[in-house]
Design goal:
alpha/beta, Rossmann fold, 8 helices, 7 strands, 42% helix, globular
Length: 262
């Protein structure tokens, strides 16, 4: 029998709350990252929003009470160190890290410039590992923390007929990196999971959603028959960030309207 008494089990609504927690969200200046930052604040967290575009970050901070902006290029190791140091100096802890910053770009594999492939891997995969490593040091010292890596359904399946070798490779790497870090840190109190969205409104997905021919392809091949709405990732994010997923690590939660279930 479990040693946890009924009195110690939190109410269902409470386990999704983030009161008293401190979160970092990269790529917070627009799209999914901006939404993620707002959702975490609404759930009670104090949030450090990180991105390269200072003007957009400042605008977000002016709209969201409880959000602190920190300009950061995830390709720069010094910026990643500074981001975590800023958070610790400002709030004294890091409880949640959302590795959301990412880039894409479609190229036939035979024509994709080597530099573009390297850049996508650097932003989408290398930066996820490096920032996770830095933030995890503080989390491991406290014996608790939740890292949420934003992968993609294209980390699980090919993008064909869209040609995105670098993006698929980087997100596939995120999925397996999530497994490995989740396994390494589980017994030390730090959980690592991934959220794999399908098509949602964002700068990277705008052409696919807004171009009518592409939109028809999307609707035809998505079992639910449409792209996702911004709020339809909120529950999955809070589940992974909060104690609601306290017995879950190394996993990838797919929210794609059924695309990968076909």
């Amino acid at each position: 029998m479990s040693s946890v008494s009924v009195q110690e089990i939190p109410a269902p609504a409470e386990i999704f709350g983030l009161d008293g927690r401190v979160a970092i969200v990269t790529g917070a200046s627009s799209g999914l990252g901006g939404r993620f930052a707002r959702v975490l604040v609404a759930a009670g967290a104090r949030v450090v929003g990180a991105a390269r575009r200072a003007d957009r970050l400042e605008r977000l901070a002016s709209e969201v009470e409880g959000l602190e902006p920190c300009v950061c290029d995830v390709r720069a190791d010094d910026d990643l160190e500074r981001l975590v140091s800023f958070t610790l100096e400002r709030f004294g802890q890091v409880d949640v890290l959302v590795n959301n910053a990412g880039v894409g770009g479609a190229h036939p594999a035979e024509d994709e410039p080597a530099e573009h492939f390297r850049r996508v891997i650097d932003v989408n995969l290398n930066a996820v590992f490096l920032l996770s490593r830095i933030a995890a040091r503080a989390m491991l010292e406290r014996g608790s923390g939740s890292i949420v890596n934003i992968a993609s359904m294209y980390g699980l399946v090919a993008a064909a007929p869209v040609a995105q070798a670098s993006y698929c490779a980087s997100k596939g790497g995120v999925v397996n990196l999530t497994r490995e870090l989740g396994g390494q840190w589980a017994r030390r109190g730090v959980r690592v999971n991934a959220l794999a969205p399908g098509f949602f409104p964002s700068e990277m997905a705008s052409e696919m959603i807004e171009d009518e021919r592409s939109a028809r392809f999307l609707r035809r091949n998505t079992p639910i028959g449409r792209p996702g709405l911004p709020h339809e990732l909120d529950g999955a994010l809070l589940f992974l960030a909060s104690d609601a997923s306290s017995y879950m690590t190394g996993q990838t939660l797919v929210v794609d309207g059924g695309w990968t279930a076909r």
